[in-house]
């Protein structure tokens, strides 16, 4: 009975005895001295500050850490009494990076993939595929291309694949980080219904605690080993008890305890444009589209924005449901995608003389004027170390790297200066992607989901840093589902509508308004 297949999809038991893991190339352990028992069918919310080893533990349980020969393992990690290496396939892991999860080119096949590997009968697979896609709210045809999905849609796709597998151990790594508020509840409820049917064991990692409280029966908080702490478990127990007894310690560790909003001075709302202001970007009737060859055959725009004006020192947040076109708008404003209609001008001060479409700028010209943080941080990395990444733009612009050490410290990356950017934790990657853009000191910052996957301490640091930049005259455009972040930055808000609410399938602007201050 050594194979997982014999154990089927029955709820899994997890046992860690003095377990630890040190990734290759690192001097610190990611997880240290972990002692833990999780009973079959338990539902656990795994918390901890960014870099505490949460994803490392989930990867270990899914059996996908063990191939790294230069890494060091200590102690024992068992599933149902067997080493994790003998339990591969027993767990369904939804990874933090939704891109890493997509394996097949059509969404139906992609969702079916895991269940096929578990030898589920064919008719049953396709019944599960349709039911899973519906339960996570991904209402697209089964042959829709997996590559043509927004970040939130990819996240829903990844979860649908896990639910269709019905594994005995469901491991979810920040499953709602890219979702709109309605999607967060939809996905949480889909997980709960699936667990009610299967009785599977759940370990879910999420920075935002409140959403999972009505699903989980236990909270485990990991202590960061990497910062010289002893590692292991900081707190463990029923949610109400952990949150009531340890509230202060948890907030000090950066955990998003329900009701806690880090103290960051909000900016004054300014929705009107003064005559003397320095206008940096101006768009009129701007259509946005991902269609290739747009100049000759511009596709049907997925969103149309009647008017955007962004001035020095002004914040603009772009919100709206998954798939509405927010990232596409951000890439268009950034000069990285051609407009599908209307006009986009960077005004005279920015273009030294006359208004210019940002799309015409190349390399140096663009990065010193408009800095863009992509939704997927990896898409931005071009060097082999964190420090080199931060020096890249200043070098290209012929400037010194004076700001680099300050940014490393401020965004809690100093202990990772020599690390390869691609090996960072999710939160660390996000912070690095923001820092690299700040290192070029652009006049306009465009940030796609800058706060997703951040613990509360780093959130506060990012919010303060951006408020200081706004005060100093940088314009900040952020695409975000994080209302508290939008409120701290103030300024104006664009709300894009869902594609299905709009005529001819195109999204459009629902409203433009001043951000309500906290
Ligand atoms: N493949 C890897 N190679 C080297 N170091 C790694 C690798 N993956 C993770 N690490 C390091 O191990 C530590 C723990 O990372 P992990 O991703 O487990 O943290 P986390 O708690 O999930 O963080 P976050 O909340 O930011 O996602 C981090 O310092 C990270 O830089
Ligand atoms: N690379 C791509 N190729 C083709 N279509 C795409 C691509 N990326 C996204 N789309 C489609 O364009 C639409 C808008 O996507 P976009 O990423 O701009 O949405 P979003 O509002 O940022 O969503 P989210 O909140 O989920 O990140 C979506 O309906 C999506 O299916």
What does this entry look like structurally?
This protein is an alpha/beta fold and 518 residues long. It folds into three domains: 151 residues, P-loop containing nucleotide triphosphate hydrolases (Rossmann fold), CATH 3.40.50; 70 residues, no CATH class; 236 residues, P-loop containing nucleotide triphosphate hydrolases (Rossmann fold), CATH 3.40.50.300. 31% of the residues lie in helices and 21% in strands. The chain has 17 helices and 19 strands. Strands 6-7-8-3-9-10 form a six-stranded mixed β-sheet, sandwiched between helices. It has a six-stranded mixed β-sheet with strand order 15-16-17-13-18-19, sandwiched between helices. Helix 4 packs across helix 5 and helix 13 packs parallel to helix 15. The N terminus and C terminus are likely disordered. One adenosine-5'-triphosphate binds next to helix 2 and helix 15.
Strand-helix topology:
Elements lengths: L3 H4 L6 E9 L8 E8 L4 E5 L6 H8 L10 E8 L2 E2 L7 E4 L3 H4 L5 H11 L4 H14 L15 H15 L3 E5 L7 H18 L2 E5 L12 E5 L10 E5 L1 H7 L1 H6 L26 E10 L14 E9 L3 E5 L6 H8 L9 E4 L1 H4 L11 H7 E4 L12 H11 L7 H7 L15 H13 L5 E5 L7 H16 L3 E5 L3 H7 L2 E5 L12 E6 L4
Parallel strand pairs: 3-8, 3-9, 6-7, 7-8, 13-17, 13-18, 15-16, 16-17
Antiparallel strand pairs: 1-2, 1-4, 4-5, 9-10, 11-12, 11-14, 18-19
Helix pairs in contact: 4-5, 4-6, 5-6, 13-15
The chain binds adenosine-5'-triphosphate (2 copies).
């Amino acid at each position: 009975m050594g194979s997982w297949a014999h154990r089927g999809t029955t709820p899994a038991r997890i046992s860690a005895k003095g377990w630890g893991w040190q990734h290759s190339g690192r001097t610190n352990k990611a997880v240290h001295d972990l002692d833990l028992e999780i009973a079959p069918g338990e539902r656990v919310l795994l918390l901890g500050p960014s870099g505490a080893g949460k994803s490392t533990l989930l990867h270990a349980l899914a059996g996908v850490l063990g191939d790294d020969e230069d890494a060091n393992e200590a102690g024992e990690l068992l599933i149902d009494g067997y080493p994790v290496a003998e339990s591969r396939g027993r767990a369904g892991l939804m990874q933090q990076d939704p891109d890493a999860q997509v394996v097949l080119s059509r969404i139906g096949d992609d969702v079916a993939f895991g269940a096929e590997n578990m030898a589920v009968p064919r008719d049953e697979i396709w019944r599960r595929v349709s039911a899973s896609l519906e339960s996570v709210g991904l209402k697209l045809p089964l042959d829709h291309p997996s590559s043509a999905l927004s970040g939130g849609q990819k996240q829903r796709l990844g979860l649908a694949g896990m639910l269709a597998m019905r594994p005995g151990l469901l491991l979810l790594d920040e499953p709602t980080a890219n979702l709109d508020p309605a999607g967060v509840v939809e996905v949480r409820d889909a997980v709960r219904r699936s667990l009610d049917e299967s009785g599977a064991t759940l370990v879910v990692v999420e920075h935002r605690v409140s959403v999972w409280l009505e699903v989980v029966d236990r909270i485990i908080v990991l202590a960061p080993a990497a910062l010289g702490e002893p590692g292991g478990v900081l707190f463990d127990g029923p949610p109400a008890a952990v949150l009531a007894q340890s509230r202060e310690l948890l907030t000090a560790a950066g955990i998003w305890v329900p009701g806690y909003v880090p103290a960051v001075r909000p900016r004054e709302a300014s929705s009107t444009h003064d005559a003397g202001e320095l206008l940096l970007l101006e768009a009129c009737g701007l259509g946005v589209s991902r269609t290739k060859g747009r100049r000759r055959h511009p596709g049907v725009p997925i969103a149309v924005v009647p008017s955007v004006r962004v001035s020095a020192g002004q914040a603009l947040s772009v919100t709206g449901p998954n798939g509405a076109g927010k990232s596409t708008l951000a890439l268009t404003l950034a000069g990285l995608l051609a407009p599908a209609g209307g006009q986009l001008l960077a005004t005279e001060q920015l273009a030294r003389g006359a208004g210019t479409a940002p799309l015409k700028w190349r390399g140096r010209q663009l990065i010193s004027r408009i800095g863009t943080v992509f939704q997927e941080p990896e898409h931005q990395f071009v060097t082999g170390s964190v420090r080199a990444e931060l020096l890249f733009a200043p070098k290209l612009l012929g400037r010194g790297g004076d700001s680099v050490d300050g940014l490393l410290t401020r965004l809690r990356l100093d202990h990772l200066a020599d690390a390869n950017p691609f090996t960072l934790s999710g939160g660390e990657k996000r912070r690095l992607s923001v820092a690299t853009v700040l290192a070029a000191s652009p006049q306009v910052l465009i940030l796609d989901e800058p706060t997703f996957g951040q613990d509360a301490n780093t959130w506060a640091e990012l919010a303060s840093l951006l408020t200081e930049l706004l005060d100093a005259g940088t314009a900040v455009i952020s695409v975000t589902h994080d209302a508290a972040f939008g409120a701290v930055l103030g300024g104006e808000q664009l709300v894009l509508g869902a594609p299905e609410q709009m005529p001819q399938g195109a999204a459009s602007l629902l409203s433009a308004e001043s951000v309500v201050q906290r």
